[in-house]
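hey can u run this one w/ heme C bound, need the structure tokens asap thx
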Amino acid sequence: MKKQLFLFSLIVGLATSCSDSKKAADNETPSSTLSGFDQKETQYYSNGRRLYKTICQNCHMENGEGLGRLIPPLAKSDFLKNNRADLPRIVKFGLHGPISVNGVEFNQPMPANPKLTDIEVAEILTYVGNTWGNEVGSFTTEEVISSLSEKE
Ligand code: HEC
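ok here u go:
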């Protein structure tokens, strides 16, 4: 009887530690290069990660790899690095016309996300710009607002 009780608590213990480690993974923090992120930036990053999963991941994939010649990668994207000021517009208003990402040409339309708020755009970009090897740094809502209000 005692032995059974021991086994039972062992199983419960194991199950709990498993779900704990899953929780930790869901709560993924920015990569080590971003240990400089403050609390607000970290919050943007994790909100952005959630938004990415709902509205971007279908096309750009979970690991930001994109899809062959149809969808450009966001992971280690030179485009992302070199066009910071254009990113808020791309996320909110979409993009069409030929572009080159990491030496590969893409030319498929990306749909707009007109319902996204300025803060949500900043959150998505803080995530995308600082995961999968990207080191673009965080985005503030102010930066998004001024970038969206620029005339072409
Ligand atoms: C329906 C598929 C689709 C969805 C959803 C989508 N994109 Fe895109 N995205 C594309 C395509 C296609 C392009 C290339 C556009 C072109 O060729 O002009 C692109 C280009 C980009 C680029 C610039 C190129 C690069 O790879 O660095 C960024 C940044 C980007 N998308 C971010 C996002 C973000 C962030 C979201 C979510 C808010 C998102 N996309 C949602 C299809 C999509």
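The pocket of heme C is lined by residues 55-56, 58-60, 71-74, 77, 79-80, 87, 90-91, 95-97, 99, 101, 106-108, 110-111, 113, 124, 128 (CB under 6 Å). anyway lmk if its weird
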